[in-house]
Amino acid sequence: MKMFCYQCQETAKGTGCTVRGVCGKKEELAKLQDLLIYTLKGIAEIVIKGKLDISKFTGDTNYKVLSGLFMTITNANFDENAFEDAIKEMIAIRDKLRESVSIDNLHDAATFTVDSRESMLEKAASVGILATENEDVRSLRETITYGLKGMAAYAEHAKNMGEEDLAINAFIYEALAKTLDDSLSADDLVALTLKTGEYGVKVMALLDGAHTARFGNPEITEVDIGTRKNPAILITGHDLVDLEQLLEQTKGTGVDVYTHGEMLPAHYYPAFKKYDHFAGNYGNAWWKQLDEFVSFHGPILFTTNCIVPPRSDEVKSRIFTTGSTGYPGCKHIVPDENGKKDFSEIIALAKTLPAPDEIESGSIVGGFAHNQVLALADKVIDAVKSGAIKKFFVLAGCDGRMKSRTYYTEFAQKLPQDTVILTAGCAKYRYNKLDLGDIDGIPRILDAGQCNDCYSLAVIALKLKEAFELDDINELPIAYNIAWYEQKAVIVLLALLYLGVKNIHLGPTLPGFLSPNVTKVLVDKFNIGGIDTVEADMKMFLDQ
Ligand code: SF4
Ligand code: SF3
Questions:
Q1: Which of 159, 160, 234, 292 has the most CB atoms around its CB within 10 Å?
Q2: Among 260, 488, 491, 492, which residue has the most ligand 2 atoms within 8 Å of its CB, making it the best to mutate?
Q3: What is the CATH number of domain 221-351?
Q4: At what angle do helices 454-467 and 487-498 cross, to 10 degrees?
């Protein structure tokens, strides 16, 4: 076996990528990612055993740990050199921390040494996922680690806006350290998995607060999906601070800015409406980029996942990365000491390239985050009471390449007229351009935003529970049919479980990292299920 990775939904045969990732990740990259995670666990062990006060850390150590986790998320970073540099940097930080305390019996992760790429690869071969022999312990350790990756991504976004909650960083250290601890039982790790969900809620609340404080509350917005005549830049990923800087720097240059994939919800924020050159959304979810980037013609800025290895050098020459993303041969833009990123090279390139080809026209409507939906609460509650709305369906999460995901389009199309879809994340592209009409003026698809805005859906559910004076969130007429792909979806799922949501159906396949016994625990405790045919599932959900 050359490598082993089973962290995403598209893992080979549903069990693990062993030769090369379906995502395009090669053996060397997979191993460097394994070693980076191992190094971060070593740092965590020193922090926990040494009882270090993380609020006293200098030099952005806490942020760098978040970034280290973030860059290993599926499709975030394909640049081996970036991982080699990160490993070296984290080992230097680890060794400095270790020198500041005196602790006996540290784990190898806190002490190992490597001095070259070769030695890194050699070390990585013995510290990957399969180093944990017990299948259930491995499954739980990985579930926690993937949840932490998603948590780190959201914490990093918040920190980019100057917001942090050190209790979240402290939990990340605690949980990472515990994934090295052989004395913990499977039950201990189940408890830690649920605690990861608790911190998942906290981090999404933190990010929601940071976004809305800085950019305002998302509001109902019609987003153009056609094109204009000017040269343009396409921005994708989830980082709204990068978008803000790009919009500022493109002002008055004659270059338009379009969003792709998970950047679409940026249009819903009041702060971005003032930019006339913020033209609209181009294309669909991440996996369609291979075709859509060709017809876009202009430069593309990746702020976070999901990158698909480009097919041609022409497209590659137009790709720029920043933050935790990276791709070999593509220019990576780093901030200066004040956090400012210089996008002038991207803007200059845009001016030399043709305007995008129009691939569709019209508009889509979104902006139904918690504040906007709660502003409509009376209307929504009346519609439920009168029976005009029988059920809400949370169809949120990630999109992906698998053909079986046409299930979600068909499911949305076949839902009865008295149902409303609540969505967030790039999963929405499977149905957000369908004309499903409205119920007494309430659109039948309510898009709350990015994957992290699944938090909004939880807030809406909790408020409805209060409004209907129910004891249990599961008594609400809400069904959860969630699509997942990468590790942010893992933290969203764990957060929903922590909030007590039961009967979640997860598709298009259940995670390969869940062992049969761990799956059984989730079924017994939360009645989690997979998906079947559209007809069978529709009947099952509507009978609930
Ligand atoms: Fe395979 Fe997914 Fe891992 Fe890529 S991220 S190597 S597709 S399991
Ligand atoms: Fe999508 Fe990659 Fe998960 Fe933010 S952009 S939801 S998959």
A1: 234
A2: 488
A3: 3.40.50.2030
A4: 20
